[in-house]
Fold each of these.
Amino acid sequence: MKILGISAFYHDSAACLLIDGELAAAAQEERFTRKKHDYGFPRNAASYCLREAGITTDQLDLVAFYDKPLLKFERLLETYLAFAPRGFASFFKAMPIWTRQKLFLADVIRHELSYNGKIVYPEHHESHAASAFFPSPFDEAAILTTDGVGEWTTTSYGIGEGNRVRILAEIHFPHSLGMLYSAFTYFTGFKVNSGEYKLMGLAPYGEAKYVDDILSHLIDLREDGSFKMNMSFFDYCTRLRMTNDRFAKLFGGPPRLAESNMTQREMDLAASIQVVTEMAMTRMARHVRKVTGKRYLCLAGGVALNCVANGRILRERIFDDLWIQPAAGDAGGAVGAAYVAWHHYSGKPRTPAPAGRDRQKASYLGPAYANEEIETFLRESGAPFRKLDERDLIAHVADLIASENVIGWFQGRMEFGPRALGNRSILGDARSPRMQTTMNLKIKFRESFRPFAPSVLEERASEWFAIDRPSPYMLLTADVLEKHRVPVADGSERLFGIDKLNQIRSSVPAITHVDCSARLQTVSKEDNPRYHALIDAFRQRTGCPVIINTSFNVRGEPIVCSPKDAYRCFMRTDMDYLVLNDYLLDKKEQPPLEGDTDWRKEFQLD
């Protein structure tokens, strides 16, 4: 039985294919169109999924869309009426796309896919819950989903048992932990639905001095984790902005303008909202454990990408273990919708997961490219290269990383979700005190405070980090162990804000955040043998089983998908070497990229 799952029209559109209940393929539309967070219909992603399985749309048994458009339209209308006349401008802007596209979704799906079969529409948070539980390694678990908003629901909890997920309680719009976090994202000068990672990365540079203001004025957070927001401080119900003048007055002035200088206020705001988010998530988790009695917790929804909050839930031992959907946001809704169609609509049983493993297949669910395709592209592009066998390639690249070269690393199937997990990655030496600044400013073209994540051999992770279990999807933080830390320089305790950035805190400073934490990926030989072999070769040379792993893209662009995307990104940055499967390219040998001489202007670089 073949089921195509789709999410679309809000942000991070995606498609996935289930074949007899097994994930065969999944990808986000942005990777093909090269439009970051592309919300359009995922025609390219769907085409890829079908192509990967060697089928056509007339062989599909079901198409599942990740929410109920009519219910969402009801929420839109009721919200505009409740706040009339203030919401009319936003209403008139939203209506054309609804009347042209979203209200007639069945027609859009049939037209885009040339499909004439059955379409099912799970609810948004049902899709999130299914995406969290059904691929998890657990036979039964509690489920917590938290995001901006679906149809009406913004937060829900329930249970998963066998082939069913059941929602037990919900919090409804406009009260939303995701919207609250996005309001601070907006107010600190970052882009909503994109800059939340930046806000989380900025938090350790600040002091949580606004927590009482947030809890006193913005959100009534109860002991069970339920909450209600004071909407007089927010404008997202009526206008195309998140906060209003009352919000600005509470925090001492207007929002920071994008790209303007960061001040201590923004850092303190980031620290404060992070603390409140962690408070809310841990209170919810305790309540859910108490009500459900389940030993395990599954998480999804955009807030589940807050790896600091996830790490806190784990450290406080509220549950025995967690599993978080790697594509926790709307992209993962496509996976959840397909699973709901398989289990709920079709009544199919859930087969047990392999011992100790999940059903997500390490999230390597996107397209792969054969050596023949890559070599044809390189020859047509006039790009000098060397082809090496795997053993020699790994040995050589390990030497290059140990010599502080930056490597574009492209192999195998592209990752599904927002994290690069060793197949579309940029790699560097975590021991280098210069590498964080170099990679942020010369490779990624992003803010200098942004931390980099480590990839560490799974079997050696507990020798370097305070973690006792795998973290394959880079969705947990853990502290660098004391034995790998170094004493900070005299006077550093008096440093504030970004001045903390250049303090060396461990023997792997490039991945150690200012609070001595790291957002780590553990790499197993079973999931990714080539990437594991590379890190192990680096360990044999240096004694360190940790390297930098950041996504293979530059600021404002999606992670690369094809060899062409990878080569273009390589040439437009100061990366030193590029690996495309078995092919090694040296930047010094490459001819200039034709017609691309002014690329630095896009990033306002000298």
Note: The radius of gyration is 23 Å.
Amino acid sequence: MDRFALDRQPGPGPAAESEAGLLQLLVHAVTDYAIFALDPDGVVATWNPGAARLKGYRAEEIIGQHFSRFYTEEDLAAELPDRELAIAAAEGHFEDEGWRIRKDGTRFWANVVITALRAEDGRLVGFGKVTRDLTERKHGEDILRDSEERFRLLVSGVRDYAIFLLTPEGRIASWNLGAEKLKGYRADEIIGQHFSRFYTEEDRRDDLPGHGLRTALSEGRWESQGWRLRKDGTRFWADVVITALRDSEGRHRGFAKVTRDLTDRKRNEDALRGVLERERGVAARLRELDRMKNELVAVIAHDLQEPIGVIRGFLQLARADWATTSEAERLEILSRIADRTEVLAHLVDDVLDMARIEAGQLRIDTVPVDLEATIAQVVADAAVRAPDRVVDVDLDVNGALALGDPQRTWQVLANLVSNALKFSPEDTPVTITTEGRPGEVVVSVADRGPGIPAEQQPHLFERFSRLPHGETRPGTGIGLFIARSLAEAQQGRRWVESAPGAGSTFRLALPAAP
């Protein structure tokens, strides 16, 4: 040690000798570092207590030995000790980490610094060598590295989840097999691209990807479900979790993103929801049918009373006094009975038609319909029922043909004419007109009745709708409902134009036949 120390002194004299003594005391006081000197050939020349503690040799055991005995067989075979000295001599300094060997053969992970020692004239007089034991740090790093490697292998091998990293800007930084399987991209196709390409156009327009990153950054994580896009453009229902990644000092380093394909579950939930909605719809429909049944029973019971009462009364009269009843009175009785029977027949027909409509069993045969002939039949039928009433006909388009069902068209017009006769004064006519319009033919039935206020008109074509001024007239309140249903079933339209005191005009529009 004296030779090396003297070579580095600033000059001879007591001060220099005192400084060299202090330096020697310092080196020998250090026990956490192995500090020793080598001659130019690498032979150990000095040995401090830290070296004895770290490497297991006493000074008398190791001084004079070559320092290569601290190296592993692999490093000796690679001539690492000689290369380290050569680099230190050429560059003045060499630092490395690696496994070294103690006296008892055990290994430790060493941080080694070798410094070239030169005299004032520049001659290489040896080397200073400082060694630290970093085995515990190395062990911790190895554990961490092994853990990170196992985690990397775990993530990369997962096939049922897409797990990948994003940069702070949202660009893809890693890609596992699950992501490739789920989204269809290979790693070399997608790394570096922005993750927003997995989102639908609507979600990108609403900046949903940016919202997800901002929420994850502010709250730590963001979870959502929605439709995402694969490489081939197909959609899948995804459960997405984005987590913000920060280092030990709190700096934002990026995001982790985990995506699951829940398409099958989504379909099952939607199917179940559809079943439940249908069940609720069926329940609501049953409640509606039950309400309608009750209303129908009430209406039928009410409207049956009048004709049945009339028929019963006349039958009792005929049975009691038929022999003494004049011929004219007999004809009147039979006429009144026939009239009430006709009312009953119409009531039954209306109820049957409404039942068919509600059950979806209404049959429509669409063919060209001769409106002129149909209107003539309606007028003839009205003349039989009400021989004293006048029905005027004004055909704007003679021989007009419409597309519809002949029987159902007759039924709608007969219903409208009957309704007009019922609400018109007996000394006023009912008018039927036709009008050709682009693509359709319109038949109008006008009366000179009391008219209908505007606020009541939207309810005319509903089931069991009875206007206040019509409650004393016979009828079920389903005639116009049936007319509306039959018109719509033939791809037609129906509406009313009316005002109080100005009468009413009901119109039926059917597609024009070619």
Note: The first strand starts at residue 34 and ends at 38.
